[in-house]
């Protein structure tokens, strides 16, 4: 159940979302935006080391998940996940699918990565740990291990790198034809999945569903926030 103060915050933000005056994501999200920047500053060594290991552009990678860092700072205390964890372990993603950790990754997101890796031989070699579980594990044990991994920063970073590599391979033609749209493609795919068409990714890059989703009024698209960080802060931190 949401705390009374949390409900008041949500209602006040919803009312502000109806305003047509432009406010930058930095000003609109305030402390949550600042906390996201502080997280990057505090962890920049491990972030840069991880992205370098997989030959990934650090500024692009952080821009992809920056909106999730804001969302984590803003909403992490809104709900207990223990019951959801049990529901997922017992019945899988059809029973429960929820965001975990700084990068707000869902179990279904990791399942998608595991499935996609099976079709990419070279990437499967590079990210074999992602799709690897003890042979004697039951499906429930695999789901529990997947949750355990999701709760660790090093695993979320590896999942992010795996996603970026898969997305770059999947949308290589689109990125080659539209190099300036690389962040648009990757950040939108992070939300829509790896089976979305370029046309659909472009559409949702303009759809204002961030941070509350389709059912509520919003000021921004997910991509807008990614692009704002990329344009204004990436050089100061990474």
Show the helix and strand layout:
Elements: H1 4-17, H2 25-29, H3 31-53, H4 58-75, H5 82-91, H6 107-117, H7 121-126, H8 139-150, H9 153-170, H10 172-177, H11 182-192, H12 198-204, H13 222-232, H14 234-237
Structure description:
The protein has one domain (34-237). 66% of the residues lie in helices and 0% in strands. It is built from 14 helices and no strands. The protein has helices spanning 4-17, 25-29, 31-53, 58-75, 82-91, 107-117, 121-126, 139-150, 153-170, 172-177, 182-192, 198-204, 222-232, 234-237. α9 (153-170) crosses α11 (182-192). The longest helix is centred in the first third of the chain and has 23 residues, at 31-53. The chain is globular, with a radius of gyration of 18 Å. Residues 1-9 and 11-18 have low confidence and may be disordered.
Features:
0% strand, 14 helices, disordered N terminus, mainly alpha, 238 residues
Question: Would you kindly provide a brief summary of this structure?
Answer:
By secondary structure, the chain is mainly α. It has helices at residues 4-17, 25-29, 31-53, 58-75, 82-91, 107-117, 121-126, 139-150, 153-170, 172-177, 182-192, 198-204, 222-232, 234-237. The chain has one domain (34-237).
Low-confidence stretches: 1-9, 11-18
Give the ordered list of helices and strands.
HHHHHHHHHHHHHH
Percent range for β-strand residues: under 5%
Radius of gyration: 18 Å
Helical residue percent band: 55-70%
Backbone structural class:
mainly alpha
Major beta sheet summary: none
Q: How many separate structural domains? A: 1
Number of helices: 14
- First and last CA, distance: 38 Å
Number of strands: 0
> Tell me, what's the shape?
globular
Overall mean pLDDT score?
A: 90
